[in-house]
Amino acid sequence: MNESDPHDHQLRVSKIRNGTVIDHVAGGQALNVLAILGIDGAGGESVSIGMNVPSDRLGKKDIVKVEDRELSQSEVDVLSLIAPEATINIVREFEVVDKLRVERPERVVGVLSCPNRNCISNANEPVDSKFDVVDDGVRCVYCGAIVREDIADHLSVA
Ligand SMILES: [Zn+2]
């Protein structure tokens, strides 16, 4: 590890053996992070959460550690909708082996449900929800409905 790495302080939270550490989540968003990743405990994952931990960058932040699961880049990209500042560390045998950047995807499929009840994505047809990511939120590809700050309320993942 490079001594001058400005991210050294993040590594101290990585005390899990194998898995993913999601750091710099905005304070209070940890449970939404779990929801967007489809983690509800039913999968048997061991999850630890730090909420409203003091942070230089964010004031207060949440930290989520998921053991024995490595997030994919596409999962991480969806996280950007609710945790744009997040840093993701993949841990193996207590060492950070990879850092993923959170980037806003151009489109999210099957993750959010449309607020418009009459939208075809809410009909009983096998149509995946599709939202384009726009500057101020996400926009339904089918009906144009826009979801802004309450994105986490529209998660369709279990
Ligand atoms: Zn729609």
Task: Describe what this molecule looks like in 3D.
It contains three helices and nine strands. The chain is mainly beta and 158 residues long. The strands form two sheets. It has a five-stranded antiparallel beta sheet with strand order 2-3-1-4-5, with helices on one face. The chain has a four-stranded antiparallel beta sheet with strand order 6-7-8-9, with no helix packed on it. Strand 4 and strand 5 (95-101) form a beta hairpin. The model is unreliable at 1-6 (pLDDT under 50). 11% of the residues lie in helices and 34% in strands. The protein is globular. The protein has helices at residues 8-11, 30-36, 73-79, and strands at 19-26, 47-55, 59-67, 87-92, 95-101, 107-109, 130-134, 137-140, 146-147. The longest helix is centred in the first third of the chain and has 7 residues, at 30-36. Bound molecules: zinc ion (ZN). Zinc ion is lined by residues 114, 116, 119, 121, 140, 142-143, 145.
* Beta strand %: 25-35%
Chain-averaged pLDDT: 84
Q: Helices and strands: which structural class? A: mainly beta
Helix amount: 10-25%
List all distinct small molecules, including ions and cofactors, that are bound in this structure. Answer: zinc ion
For the largest sheet, list the strands in their spatial order.
2-3-1-4-5
Spatial shape: globular
Give a short account of the largest sheet. Answer: 5 strands, antiparallel
The stretches of 5 or more residues where confidence is low (pLDDT under 50) are 1-6
Write down the secondary-structure element order.
HEHEEHEEEEEE
What is the CA-CA span between the terminal residues? 38 Å
